[in-house]
Write a structure and sequence with these properties.
- By secondary structure, the protein is of the alpha+beta class.
- 19% of the residues lie in helices and 45% in strands.
- The chain is built from 2 helices and 7 strands.
- It has a 4-stranded antiparallel β-sheet with strand order 4-3-2-6. The protein has a 3-stranded antiparallel β-sheet with strand order 5-1-7.
- The longest helix is centred in the N-terminal third of the chain and has 12 residues.
- The protein is globular.
- It starts with a strand and ends with a strand.
Length: 94
Amino acid sequence: MYIVVDSALLVEALEDASKAISAKSIMPILGCFLIEANQEGLTVTGTDDRATIQSYIFEEHVRTERTGKVVLPKLFLEMLKKLNGEVRIELKMA
């Protein structure tokens, strides 16, 4: 996966999805975001044992070089809030 997106748009999508993430989840994976990149744009998903919230950033606002999926911890949102401008996310498969 390789994407380029404006940090403000990604922060907004992550904040929306974070409303579904519980501070005390029964499984560690439920304390994370699922980020999926495809040709239609970017989908950010947050979930707990009862609710799921998805946010979208459409293709005109995301440059997708390679599609893919990645799970990132909720801490990623706090780090991203400190950045301005474009953010590049690259996932290299071994």
